[in-house]
Amino acid sequence: MAYFPRTPARHRSRSDVAKTPLTPSHLLSALNNVSISSPTKTGGSKYSVADITNPFISKSRPVSPVKRTTSGTIQVSESLQRQASSGVIRKGGIESKLNVVSRDYVPPPKPEAKRSRSTPAMRDSRDRFITNREETEVAATLDLMSLNPTSSSPGHTARLVAATGVPLNKRVLAYHEAPPAASDTTLTKQREIARPLYSRPGSLPSSSGAVSNRSRKIAVQPERVLDAPGMVDDFYLNLLSWSVQNVVAVALSENTYIWKADSGEVVQIGEAPEGTYVSSVDFSNDGAFLGIGIGSGDVELWDVESGQKLRSMGGHQAQIAALSWHGHILSSACGDGSIWHHDVRVARHKVMELLGHSGEVCGLKWRADGELLASGGNDNVVNIWDGRVGDVAEGSRGVARWTKRNHSAAVKALAWCPWQPSLLASGGGTNDATVHIWNSTTGGRLHSVKLPAQVTSIQWSPHKKEFLTTHGYPTNAIMVHAYPSLDRVAEIRDAHDSRVLFSCISPGGDMVCTGAGDENLKFWRIWEIPRQKKKKEGPEGRGLTGSGILSLR
């Protein structure tokens, strides 16, 4: 049956379109009448399509003719096709000249995924100011700059090298070579010999022997040295005192002496009973009386002017390591850990007992106003007692207001600040070597400073915001510290040949007397008296001013 292609619907007129309306019944009957038969070969390579009577489906178009396989200049024969289909390729044949794929397709690498915010970016580790390029890079750079000898005139390059003095392909900026060793080794040997003298822990040596981080300097030599034969080398004792009448008391074994600074006179006050020794001394507030503690536990009271013993107060069962006065009350610290208040005016002298230490009490200081008493002991404890006890009677006992256990060694060094009464300084022994500053009102610790050796005594300056500390092994030093910064203002190393165990300050506040196991008393000028106070005291004044200083020289 001949095939007549239909005109596209968009070119047909409305009259060519079927006028029969399309309804569901017409569509169903049309689908039932559809019959499709298999195509049959009708000669050659043409195929006939089955007749379709469905008015809505047009007759299929003829199948595309089979394309003949051809190749550029090579005629494809039937034998070549059979060989290609069987996979056999002859060596030397025409088929061997075809391009044969011998490798699989390799896809290009995928782009790297974007890093997350938490992944650090790779940074260039090179320094933009200091070059670390290799010689090949330097040569390439010089080549670009037309300075490479291979690309420039040899004569011109030689002139550049001679003019600049810089070898080619080398850095222009470089470190200088180390200076040659000194031919004379005398100075080096001297430094090695003197090195141990400056190896004290915590010290900063200087050419004068004093250590200072400020402009103020102190004399590193004592103004006067007194012999003190028989001075006991015992950390727990207190064998020095300086009265307001400019008199120094010192205990030498079983004897007690006073040295009058104004006249230089030395007087023996008393002698301890046979078989015992003097363990502590302290002047009364007015300097008229001297309290002497004995190793047997007795406390003696002496008149300084007449040199007579007024009374002896017993009751303690161990040595009296420390004494402290306030008014008519003389407080004594005993080796059994107790502290007694003695009223020197009455026959029954013991008016109160303070129990707050489990070891020997070796430090004891009344505050100037008499409201508080500080004590330190071999149990590493600092106690601050209330001195306002009111009416007292025999057998009365007190309880410490503040108890501090910050020290890790025996506490002997105690000092109240004269220009800020609420401040108390305490220093620990060898295993502690620390000074703590306490607020006696709140009980809080304000400052602390670690020092290179055991702290044996502390003295506050009445004119400057500074305090002095004396030390034992290994420095045997005297140190001056600023307050409240606690900076070390000055240091006198090896102030004595043995550890500096005792100290006391002059009434004028400018001199400090120290005692040590080397059996010497040394007087040091640490501070200066303010000018306005010098004018008030005049040439006849007390203290180490006017005629008083002449006696020391």
Pick out its properties.
553 residues; mainly beta; 5-stranded mixed β-sheet; 7 helices; 11% helix; 30% strand; ubiquitin ligase activator activity; repeat
Q: In angstroms, what separates the terminal alpha carbons?
A: 155 Å
Global geometry: elongated
Number of strands: 32
Largest sheet: 5 strands, antiparallel
Strand proportion, as a percent range, falls in: 25-35%
**For the CA atoms, what is the radius of gyration?**
55 Å
Report helical residue fraction.
Answer: 10-25%
Please report the number of helical segments. Answer: 7
In the predicted model, the low-confidence regions spanning at least 5 consecutive residues are 38-52, 200-213, 533-553
**Class per helix and strand makeup:** mainly beta
Region (Disordered): 1-21, 103-124, 534-553
Family: Belongs to the WD repeat CDC20/Fizzy family.
Domain CDC20/Fizzy WD40: 226-524
GO molecular function, one term: anaphase-promoting complex binding
Structure description:
With 553 residues, this protein is mainly beta. Residues 38-52, 200-213 and 533-553 have low confidence and may be disordered. It has helices at residues 24-32, 78-86, 135-144, 154-164, 186-194, 531-537, 547-552; strands at 40-41, 47-48, 210-211, 224-227, 240-242, 247-252, 255-260, 266-271, 278-283, 289-294, 299-303, 308-313, 320-326, 329-334, 338-343, 350-355, 361-366, 372-377, 382-386, 397-398, 400-404, 411-416, 423-428, 434-439, 445-450, 455-460, 466-471, 478-482, 488-492, 500-505, 511-516, 520-525. The strands form eight sheets. Strands 3-29-28-27-26 form a five-stranded antiparallel beta sheet, with no helix packed on it. Strands 13-14-15-16-20 form a five-stranded mixed beta sheet, with no helix packed on it. The protein has a four-stranded antiparallel beta sheet with strand order 4-32-31-30, with no helix packed on it. The protein is 11% helix and 30% strand. The radius of gyration is 55 Å and the shape is elongated.
